[in-house]
Amino acid sequence: MGEAPLVAGVELGGTKCICILARGPDDIEDRVQLPTTRPEETLSAIEAVLDRWSGFSALGIASFGPVSIDHASPLYGHITSTPKPGWAGQDVAARLKRHAGVPTGFHTDVVGAALAEARWGAAKGLADIAYATVGTGIGVGLIAGGKPVDGLTHSELGHLRPVRVLGDDWVGNCPYHGACLEGLAAGPAIAARTGIPGDQLAADDPAWDLIAHALGQLLHSLVLTGVPRRIVMGGGVMVGTDHLFPRVRAAMAKSLAGYVALPEVGDPETYVVPPALGGNAGPLGAIVLGAQALGVQLQTSFTTN
Amino acid sequence: MGEAPLVAGVELGGTKCICILARGPDDIEDRVQLPTTRPEETLSAIEAVLDRWSGFSALGIASFGPVSIDHASPLYGHITSTPKPGWAGQDVAARLKRHAGVPTGFHTDVVGAALAEARWGAAKGLADIAYATVGTGIGVGLIAGGKPVDGLTHSELGHLRPVRVLGDDWVGNCPYHGACLEGLAAGPAIAARTGIPGDQLAADDPAWDLIAHALGQLLHSLVLTGVPRRIVMGGGVMVGTDHLFPRVRAAMAKSLAGYVALPEVGDPETYVVPPALGGNAGPLGAIVLGAQALGVQLQTSFTTN
Fold first, then answer.
1. Does the beta-carbon distance from A224 to B157 stay under 8 Å?
2. B299 in any annotated domain
3. A179 in the same domain as A65
4. Contacts of B134 (CB under 8 A, 6+ apart)
5. Which PANTHER family does this chain map to (chains A, B) (predicted)?
6. A253 with A128, same domain?
7. Is A51 exposed, middle or buried (0-12, 13-18, 19+ CB in 10 A)?
8. Do A71 and B305 touch (CB under 8 A)?
9. Do B187 and B171 contact (CB within 8 A), yes or no?
């Protein structure tokens, strides 16, 4: 890792910001946590942290979304729409890039975590992976050839509409789609359906089968993109619920029905795995984004493509 | 186009092969059509065509599938499994590359058509597109930054399982998944459900609403990948059924429910379009694949990413 550049990374989350100065997980020079409040206050506080640091050659920002990652758009680097007061339309990337004066990478927090898990975490050494977080929402980061899969915008695959379990006609709680994946299987959906928060719901509650089915459909869909050599599933619902992994893997295998006959997919225990980086995935993802803005692919052992 | 390399392109289809020697659609030096029979006979006939040609600097192959496009696999460039006699396990790319002695690109016929429509067709000038073919099967080619989105394998998004229309419990006819997209909306599924081939099914037949709903779910899913700036829909079911485009666009818009608030997606008539290259999309896609194997991005007006 002696070759890795020193990067300033910012994970801009909905409730807190984590700024790190690092080359990687084993070489973190500083780590500062700030509350996310109003934009002016928060961005000024981040700038003050950057002012204290020296020697970094790039900046990476992994932000809550939705954001614009479309380089062809004047809104590139902005948070586009959010219920968070003051943040809709906020230009994050250009402002912090101007302040830092170094090449700057910008993407969603979910893609950041995906990049970090691919580089240093549960999918280490793999260039093609998916990372799905199942928590207060469902987000997916898809990485191909070591880079985020995007174009017009970033993935919103947490809002796929899965086929339903026969007889389950609960309307779901996504304000846009009702019974999309997020409206069926995210934490608030579990609580809305059962009246009990997921972390208190008994392992034998029949609702888990419905949740596992929905998440199995997410995995089915991710496999069919052709991209992932491994799928990392994180977020509060997955990480806090050990019995869910075997169920979700089984739901995936049943749904695919042997259609993708590749050994990677055929071994669900190694194909669908929990994350390895915990709370550092987001800020470390910002480090990867910064390095990629320099044209440096931190991945040294990646499968070529 | 004076800068474009001369490329030998092969579209290897299930019933016929088209070989072209070309720089692009306006500069086709030769075009030869061969029947696809047994592998040895067909590949030898392709080699004989290549022997007659000179001056090409790359070879591109767009093949029926499934194929291995995983450079990390010893099966790269093989047709992996197919009911077509003799073709399962056939090494296509290495054999033809060895014979031609030039850099060789290889991918599915669907991805080939996607690349060609992005370069010269209905999505000309766009680096990030999706191409979906709805015919005897459903195939999807996703292109991001001018390159195919892939990794472990190629897209199989035609086998997504869409949410069903309330009250529709037809089991579908996909041998793996029953009521996946292909099992609900490909040509054979339409005929199996209604007893009438799609091209003879009356425009006011209620089955079309169910088919449009399923294809609307395909579009919903493709939009949520974040990739496409435009979606091209081709294949016999789409191209032969003019009334289907408005229905499919409406089904997409209804399903997304305003969630992806970008102007491109908000104008379904320009966002979801028929193909422009007809029967030449496949062989021209092979030309793009060959050029990409040379490291040449034929796309000159692509949106940068």
1. yes
2. no
3. no
4. B185, B186, B187, B215, B233, B234, B235, B236, B237, B238
5. FRUCTOKINASE (PTHR42742:SF3), TRANSCRIPTIONAL REPRESSOR MPRA (PTHR42742)
6. yes
7. exposed
8. yes
9. no
Chain B residues 212-251 with CB within 8 Å of chain A: 217, 220-221, 223-229
Please report whether residue A305 resides in a domain. Answer: no
Question: How far is the C-alpha of A190 from the C-alpha of A153, rounded, in Å?
Answer: 28
Contacts of A80 in chain B (CB under 8 A): 261
CATH number, position A80: 3.30.420.40
Contact B72 A303 (CB under 8 A): yes
Q: What is the ipTM of this complex?
A: 0.96
- How many structural domains comprise chain B? 2
Q: Are B145 and B228 in contact (CB under 8 A)?
A: no
B150 with A227: Cβ contact below 8 A: yes
Same-domain check for residues B106 and B139: no
Instruction: Please indicate if any CB of chain A lies within 8 Å of the CB of B80.
Output: yes
- A-B contacts at Cβ under 8 angstroms: 148
Tell me: do B178 and B261 sit in the same domain.
yes
Q: Are residues A81 and A207 in the same domain?
A: no
State the nearest Cα–Cα gap between B156 and chain A, in angstroms: 5
Encode chain A (305 residues) as per-residue pLDDT tens digits: 447 999 999 999 999 999 999 999 999 999 999 999 999 999 999 999 999 999 999 999 999 989 999 998 999 999 998 888 999 999 999 999 999 999 999 999 999 999 999 999 999 999 999 999 999 999 999 999 999 999 999 999 999 999 999 999 999 999 999 999 999 999 999 999 999 999 899 999 999 999 999 999 999 999 999 999 999 999 999 998 999 999 999 999 999 999 999 999 999 999 999 999 998 999 999 999 999 999 987 754 444 43
Residues 6+ positions from B260 with CB-CB distance below 8 Å: A153, A156, B223, B224
Taking the Cβ of residue A144 and every Cβ of chain B, the question of whether any pair is shorter than 8 Å is answered with: yes
Indicate whether A298 belongs to any domain: no
Per-residue pLDDT reduced to its tens digit, B187-233: 999 999 999 999 899 999 999 999 999 999 999 999 999 999 999 99
Considering CB atoms only, which of A71, A81, A157 is closest to B224?
A157
Q: Where are the alpha helices (DSSP H) in B3-136?
A: 39-52, 93-100, 109-120
User: How much is the pTM?
Assistant: 0.96
* Nearest chain B CA: its distance from A52 CA (Å): 32
In a domain, B1, yes or no: no
B240 shares a domain with B142? yes
Residues A133 and A265 in one domain: yes
Tell whether B263 and B194 lie within a shared domain.
Answer: yes
Contact A153 B303 (CB under 8 A): no
